[in-house]
Amino acid sequence: MAKILVIHGPNLNLLGTREVDIYGKVTIEDINNSLREKAKGKGVDIEIMQSNHEGEIVDTIGKAKDNKINAILMNPAAYTHTSVAIRDAVAACGIPTVEVHLSNIYSREEFRHTSLIAPVAKGQVSGFGKTSYLLGFEAAIELAKK
Ligand code: DQA
Question: Which uninterrupted H or E stretch holds 72?
Fold first, then answer.
């Protein structure tokens, strides 16, 4: 069975109360439950982690091949714009990766317009709230089954 790793980056544990004007009231548990439901319907395995620590995310990506992960769905959150280490981990692991964002990073502050992850990702979905994750998950499933 194809296995997809979902990574939520820093502060996404606070969804539901964090800047609700931007991110809405959806919680990380809401998102995870929808992803688990979709995974069940599509017959894929799903592993989910959230971390506020760059190194922990790098370690998880580094172990993904050994853990038989076929695709990664990731919201790198603030690390999108800063982390060469996460970008290099994605490039090194050779596992197709889909980048997602709840908000449209291109319609926000200028520092959010650059994603260091996008050039090493298969693609990006940005701006649709929880739907970004669900659309990105569809793409990850396709990539995982290839
Ligand atoms: C985010 C956008 C990032 O710029 C921000 O740092 C986040 C969340 C999003 O999902 O819209 O933490 O990745």
Answer: strand 71-75
Query: What residue's CA is closest to ligand 1, atom 6?
Result: 78
d(CA 84, CA 80) in angstroms, rounded, equals: 9
Please report, for the chain, the start and end positions of each structural domain, with discontinuous segments joined by +.
3-144
- By the 10 Å C-beta count (0-12 exposed, 13-18 middle, 19+ buried), 6 is classed as buried
Distance of CA 78 from the midpoint of ligand 1 (Å)? 6
**CA of 23, closest atom in ligand 1:** 11
Position 34: which residue type? S
pTM value surpassing 0.90:
yes
Q: What is the pLDDT of residues 8-62, one digit of tens each?
A: 999 999 999 999 999 999 999 999 999 999 999 999 999 999 999 999 999 999 9
> For a substitution probing ligand 1, which of 105, 107, 108 has the most ligand atoms within 8 Å of its CB?
105
**129 exposure class (CB count in 10 Å sphere: 0-12, 13-18, 19+):** middle
Catalytic residue among 8, 23, 79, 133: 23
Q: Is 8 a catalytic residue?
A: no
**Which top CATH class is 3-144?**
alpha beta
